[in-house]
Amino acid sequence: MLQNATQVNNGVNVGALLDARQALTAAPEAARFKWRATTQWINGTHSRSTVSGFYGLGTEQSRKVEFKYDADHPEIFASEDHGATPVEFVLVGLASCLTAGIAAVAQHRKIQLRKVTATIEAGMNVQGILGIDADVRNGFDGIKVIYDIDADATKEEIAALVAQSQKRSAVFDIVTNPTDVAVEVR
Amino acid sequence: MLQNATQVNNGVNVGALLDARQALTAAPEAARFKWRATTQWINGTHSRSTVSGFYGLGTEQSRKVEFKYDADHPEIFASEDHGATPVEFVLVGLASCLTAGIAAVAQHRKIQLRKVTATIEAGMNVQGILGIDADVRNGFDGIKVIYDIDADATKEEIAALVAQSQKRSAVFDIVTNPTDVAVEVR
Question: Could you report the per-residue pLDDT of A62-109, keeping only the tens digit for each?
Fold first, then answer.
């Protein structure tokens, strides 16, 4: 495939995103999405979640495939390690959200990306979940994401890309700000 | 395999967890964990995350397998839907965390589980991430988890199981409370 060497292509259709922005400004109800998963307990700490349909643009949306994710605890917690631990899924969500944002912002700013790698690490004192110390939180005590980015841009332009991605990231917002969770038993 | 009909077995080794609680009360440094993922940008909004080693019990921990997770945006956002969206990974993390907790608490309380299904749904106004309205948050406007549980227990005992699981859930804490995230470019 011949490609114009001066044409930036990160594989993001920015035109479609700008069209969506315009359409959803005019039709705010269409911007209300509902994301879903269904989780089936298998055994012990092992479960299997299915991600498939969602609601958006005013209607139910289906996918060509169902995504299945096994989650479990690792062997050092006397579990069988059938999948990532639940907290690791949160890290996958955060790093993939920021990374998709970097690609979209780079496309919009006509910056060609060559390689983007995120290394994400979160500290957690398990005295919280084990109920040893009520003053220790159950979740992470902090998260650090380090980006390694090779792109046709200056160091400052790359830093600005990453900053803009954080500003528009859904998962960054979810992790850094509180969200109400209602849990019910049918 | 013959099994004593009166013996509760949800596949959770509660004895090992209680031993861990005792050991980590005496050795608080061993309770400091670090969970990690590495995320590689593929193209467009598509990335691949790898979850493998972590740090805990005072040392680096390895796994027999590496878990790989593709994330992407769906086709209605002009993407290619190579995996769940980042926000759906958060839902998988939350529902699998609560579900593992239900199994562990049930085992501790000698309640036999037969079937546990969680249906999780989160609302999100995409006017936030599209930058249409600065007053709309990027993340979820709320999450609802509905449990359907078949177990040898009363309705009240089942409700108490679910409540205790929330109280000790790492991901429930991460989603309902703020966590600091530092993003750096190398």
Answer: 999 999 999 999 999 989 999 999 999 999 999 999 999 999 999 999
Quote the DSSP letter at residue A2: -
Check if the beta carbon of residue B106 is closer than 8 Å to that of residue B91: no
- Strands A67-71, A54-56: pairing is unpaired
User: Does residue A72 sit at the B interface (CB-CB below 8 Å)?
Assistant: yes
CB contact under 8 A, B178 and A181: no
Phi-psi region of B112 (alpha: psi -120 to 50; beta: other; left: phi over 0): beta
Is B144 in the A-facing interface, judged by CB distances under 8 Å?
Answer: yes
Radius of gyration of chain B (CA): 20
Helix and strand totals (H; E) in chain B: 4, 8
- Rounded to a whole number of angstroms, the distance from the CA of A18 to the nearest CA of chain B is 8
Look up residue A35 and give its two tokens: 């994301």
The SS3 assignment for A147 reads: strand
Give the predicted TM-score (pTM) of the model: 0.96
Q: Is A143–B38 a contact, with Cβ atoms under 8 angstroms apart?
A: no
Residues of chain B with Cβ-Cβ distance to A62 below 8 Å are none
